[in-house]
Amino acid sequence: MIMLFQQILHRCRQKQGFTLIELLISMTIMAMLITVLYQAFSTASRVWTKQELFDEARARQMATSRLIRSDLQHLIPYRYVAEKGEFDLFSMAPNVLFYVTSEGFGARGRDHFGLFFTCCFLQPEDDGTLTLRLFKTAYPEADFLDVFEQFLDQSLQEQQAWSPPLFLREHSVTVMSELTEAGFFAFSLPVSGEDADWDEEERFFQRLAEPFALHREVPEAVSFTYQFDQAWHDLQVVPFCQPDPTASDEETEQ
Fold first, then answer.
1. Residue 198 in domain
2. Which residues pair with 117 in a beta bridge?
3. What are phi and psi of 56, to 5 degrees?
């Protein structure tokens, strides 16, 4: 095709003008070249845009992971008195985590006394994915405490199938979206045996298969395991309020 185009140009040098056929052939060749170049540019542009969106989503995911880790590291044991008695404001199931933290990430208000009352929960979406949402307030709202106490009154089976009420859904913010699998777990330290050798996916399904136990106090360690874009991540956090199990007795006393 290129040779034909060159032959036409060579013939044109020997003549004073183009014939109609030569002009049509030249326009056709030029149109084909422009089409090929446009398709190549369009494909490269789509690939670049897709990679850029992926990099942005990954950057947001990594930043959010660091914020969640900091949130869980600053868990604070908190006890309050209600009509039904005294409660430690901590409880969890694979799909929800109630706690008090000193970190203000995602809080509804900034006027506080150093504590934030929080519910982090997984919300199923119509496309089968999970969205991690965060409710956090600078003071213990009555509606929030009602939701927490209702959760404690449920059976273990009901807690595992817990669904966030309208109050939490309306006043929470999206932290992560498009998660394939996700769950909150409590465990003891140090991690040993098979659990230490499992990868994130194996650890997630093994902990999910273990008998569910209700936690009403801040555990030794908390993990948030999730799958995002076919990659597994396991945030294992030891709250600062818990002693470091790897420290010596002298270090602990100091």
1. yes
2. 100, 137
3. -65, -45
Q: What does the pLDDT look like over 97-146, one tens digit per residue?
A: 999 998 887 776 655 568 899 999 999 999 999 999 999 988 888 999 99
| CB-count exposure of residue 95 (10 Å: 0-12, 13-18, 19+) | buried
- Asked whether residue 48 is domain-assigned, the answer is no
**Strand intervals (E) in the chain:** 79-82, 85-88, 91-93, 96-101, 116-124, 130-137, 173-187, 221-228, 231-237
| pTM of the complete model | 0.70
Work out whether strand 173-187 and strand 130-137 pair parallel, antiparallel, or are unpaired: antiparallel
Please state, in angstroms and rounded to a whole number, the distance separating the CA atoms of residues 42 and 36. 10
pLDDT in tens, 39-53: 888 888 777 777 776
Tell me if 83 is assigned to some domain: yes
Secondary structure (3-state) at 67: helix
Q: How far is Cα 88 from Cα 80, in angstroms, rounded to an integer?
A: 7
**Domain range holding 203?**
67-237
Q: 69: which 2 tokens?
A: 């880790």
Q: At what angle do helices 20-73 and 2-13 cross, to 10 degrees?
A: 140
Contact (CB, 8 A) for 195 and 203:
yes
Residues recorded for the chain: 254
Taking only the tens place, the pLDDT of each residue in 182-229 is: 999 887 765 544 444 556 667 676 766 665 566 667 888 888 989 988
